[in-house]
Amino acid sequence: MSAPAATPTGIKYKRIILKLSGEVLRGDGVDPIDAAVLKRMCEQVKEIHDMGVEVAVVIGGGNIFRGLQGAERGVDRTTGDYMGMLATVINGLAIMDCLEHMGVSVRVQTAIPMEQVAEPFIRRRAVRHLEKNRVVIFVAGTGNPYFSTDTTAALRANEISADIILKATKVDGIYDKDPKKHADAVKYESVTFLEALRQQLKVMDATAFSLCNDNNKPILVFDLADPHAIRLAVEGKKIGTLVHS
Going by fewer Cβ within 10 Å, which terminus of the chain is more open, N or C? Predict the structure, then answer.
């Protein structure tokens, strides 16, 4: 597999995995996908795409259905996880449609075969799309129950040789405790994988975190609220919290 091309001037990370939770698309309303929120998010993706960054997106499905929530309602965990995977497909198609209306070339790749909806995930094809300046959206998780979309992001990042995982959240980084509950919470500008493990900082779930730790794949956790947050991240500006080896 070919490595990413030379990084354009002013950009620190040439090939990225952008990890988005499904909840990001909900906004403050009751609709699973808020059109205004979706547009603002896609504008940020277009901004870095136009700068020459190779962008792959992993989207969650929690705004529509989450497997663990299903289990609480009596749905079998495996069935619930598959339902959650299908929710990520809906979100991925929404992002694709929005980006295409902005003139961005997009491909959706799914871990669960559905030929009329999306391409199957094929690593070499995904890399080729990125090299051809197409945004690639990975949906349906890993295709297996009991694995989160955080794990999907970690797995795909290693498979396509991404420079970093950008984890967009509603919090501006990683804190030693919940900043919404504790006024004295301290934010980390950077933290090593070992320190995050030692302090039990909830960066990603255990499987995803182990994949990143074992393969020295850095993670940047940041707040998506800033309209240029993703650009600042790929430029290497001080934003969020960097987790590194």
Answer: N
DSSP string, 209-242: HHHHHHTT--EEEEETTSTTHHHHHHTT-S-SEE
Q: Is the pLDDT of residue 114 over 90?
A: yes
Query: Looking at residues 75-84, what average pLDDT do you find?
Result: 91
Task: Determine the residue type at 127.
Answer: V
Has this prediction a pTM greater than 0.70? yes
What is the extent of the structural domain holding 117? 15-244
Query: For residue 2, what is the DSSP state?
Result: P
- Looking at the structure of the chain, the number of domains it has is 1
pLDDT at residue 245 in the model: 85
* Beta bridge partners of residue 153, listed in sequence order: none
E strand or H helix that includes residue 146? none
Token match 């074992």: residue? 214
In a domain, 6, yes or no: no
Query: How would you classify the pairing of strands 15-20 and 164-169?
Result: parallel
CA-CA-CA-CA torsion sign (139, 133, 245, 188): negative
Residues counted in the chain: 245
Mean pLDDT check: name the lowest of 83-87, 118-122, 150-154, 192-196: 192-196
Q: Tell me, what CATH number does 168's domain have?
A: 3.40.1160.10
- Phi, psi for residue 43 in degrees, rounded to 5: -60, -35
Position 4 in a domain: no
Q: How many helices (H) and strands (E) does the chain have?
A: 9, 11
Joined together, the tokens standing for residue 29 give: 């309303």
Q: How many CB atoms lie within 10 A of CB 199?
A: 13
